[in-house]
Amino acid sequence: MGAYRIVFAGPIGAGKTTAIQALSDIPPISTEVASAEAEAVGKATTTVAFDLGQVVLENGDLVQLYGAPGQARFDFMWPMISENAIGAVILADNRRPDTVELTLQYVREFAPRIAAGNCVVGVGRSKLRHKPGVDEYQDVLEAAGFAIPVMEVDVRRKEDTLLLLDVLLARLEAAHSGA
Amino acid sequence: MALDPRDSRVGMQQELAALCKKVPTAKLAAVASEDGLLTATHEQAEPNPSDRKSAMLASLIALARTAAREHGLEEARWLVLGCRLGVMVVRPFGRQRRRLLLLVVSDSEKLGPTLAAAKEFALRIDAKFGLPVGEPAQA
After folding, report:
1. Residue numbers of B between 35 and 74 with CB closer than 8 Å to A
2. Which residues of A touch B33 (CB under 8 A)?
3. Residue ranges of the domains in chain A?
4. What is d(CA A98, CA A103) in angstroms, rounded to the nearest whole number?
C-alpha cells in the first residue's frame, strides 16, 4: 500500500473544489470563503488555502487530493501543495474566452513541479460552450512542448473525475515501466 | 445610502491610522477581505488589492479556522503569531461582510491592550462600514 498526492489546479470557478467533493471518500477539508469578486468571477465563494480530500484505490493505495487556489495572488501556495505530487489535474472552464491560453499557463506553472510532469487536462462545461474543442487544447499544448492528455469532464460526476485519476496513474505506471 | 468604495477605503484608512496611534508599538495595520484582497492600510497610499501578503493572511486564517474546528473549538476569533521581532495579530470581523484586520506590533509584552484595541476597531468598523453594498443604512 502506498500514499500519493494528486493536485487539482486551474482558474477560479473551474471546478476544483467540486471535483474533490465528488471524488473524496471522506468529507473534504475546505477553505472556501465568500468572494469579494463574486460579481466579476460569477462565483460566490473561493478557496483561499487548499481543499483536501482522499480516495482509496482498489489496490488499497491512498490518494490525497489537494485543490489549489486559482487566483495568482495565492501562487505562494502552489509549490507547497505540489510538493511530492505524482500528478496534476488541470481543470479548464470552457465558458472562458481565454480558456486555452489560461490552461497552458496553469500547465506551465504546475508541470515542472510534478513528478515527470505528469498532468492531465479536464475540460469542463463543454456542453455549455462547445468551442474550443479538445483538439484545440491539445494542439496548443503540444506546440508548447506538453504531450498531455486532454479530456472533457463533468466534475460533478465521480466517474468522470475518477477517469482523470486513472489516466494520471496509468501514465505514471507507463513511465515507471519505461513504456 | 451606501458608501462609495473609495470613501469607504479612505474612512477605513483613517480608522487604521487612529488604531496605530492608539497602539504605540504598532508597525502596520491593514484590512483585507476574507478572500485576501487588501482594502486599506494605515498609510494614505492607495493599496494594491492583489497584494500577496493579504492573500497569505486569508490562507493563514482559513487554515487556523479549519484547525480550530477540527479541535472542536468552533469559530476562530483571533490568530496571534509571536515572532522574534514582533507579533502579528489577525482578527476576522464583520457581521455582514467578513473582513480581516491585521495588526503588526513590535512588542509582545503589551498584547492585552493590543487585542482590546483591535476588538474595539472591529466593532467600530462593523458599525460604520458593515452594511452590504447597496443596502440603505437604518436610522
Report:
1. 35-37, 50-52, 54-56, 58-60, 62-63, 65-66
2. 36
3. 3-177
4. 9
What pLDDT, in 10s, does the model give residues A2-43? 789 999 999 998 999 999 999 999 999 999 999 988 888 778
Residue listed under C-alpha cell 458608501: B3
Task: Residue B98: name the closest of B136, B55, B129, B67 by CA.
Answer: B129
- Per residue in B12-66, pLDDT (tens digit) is 999 999 999 999 999 999 999 999 999 999 998 888 888 899 999 999 999 999 9
Cα gap A45→A35, rounded to integer Å: 5
Interface test with B, best of A33, A47, A51 (most B CBs within 10 A): A33
Please state the pTM of the whole predicted model: 0.87
Residue type, A89: V
Write down all domains in chain B, each with its CATH number in brackets. Answer: 5-129 (3.30.450.30)
